[in-house]
Amino acid sequence: MLAGTVLLTGCSEKQEASTTLPTTAAAPTTEALPPLGPADFPVPAEARVNTPGAAVEFVRYYVALTKHLAMTARDPQPLLRLSEDCRTCNQIAQALAADVAANYSYAEYTYEFNEYGPALVNGDMAEVGFAYVQGPITAVDESGQVVPDRSAASPEMLQSGASLLWKDDLQSWVITGLTVG
Question: Would residue 36 count as lying in a domain?
Fold first, then answer.
């Protein structure tokens, strides 16, 4: 209690005003990252650093981007731009493009992303292990009827992983390999 009294009474003493003002010079800033990803769903800054944590955040973003594109029924090109020579990424993009062409939409798209720990980073390469819990997912056609082969009624845990490559020109990771399940 004595310490609290000393601190509080120290503030009550009269203090003279400073005769100098802070400088108006701009504080040094870091260069802004170039935009990456869809304008309404850009790659977050915390995923755009060459660190183990950022590698995990990039994979988390990529998975979320898949849902974002499915729910907005848009062109899956951002998935392709954020991957390089990734067969599974190409298959996901093709499936989304086929859904758009068939006028399917998603009434429900639930998933969980649970990383297994920090990414393993070796220079410009990273490996991320995660569990992907898919579902329920409900795809519907133009009349609102459920499309069974594009839907998953109950959640399913899929042991998953991703390989990444750091790209200096993008200041970002890209997916080079993706295993889901």
Answer: no
**Domain assignment of residue 14, yes or no:** no
**pLDDT (tens digit per residue) in 118-174:** 999 999 999 999 999 999 999 999 999 999 999 998 998 999 999 999 999 999 999
Q: Do the Cβ atoms of 47 and 58 come closer than 8 Å? A: yes
- Would you say the pTM of this structure is higher than 0.85? no
Domain that holds residue 111: 43-180
pLDDT value of residue 31: 63
User: The domain that contains 161 carries what CATH number?
Assistant: 3.10.450.50
Average the pLDDT over each of 23-32, 84-93, 162-171 and give the range with the smallest value.
23-32
Q: At what angle do helices 52-72 and 87-101 cross, to 10 degrees?
A: 20
Question: What does the mean pLDDT of the chain come to?
Answer: 85
49: in domain: yes
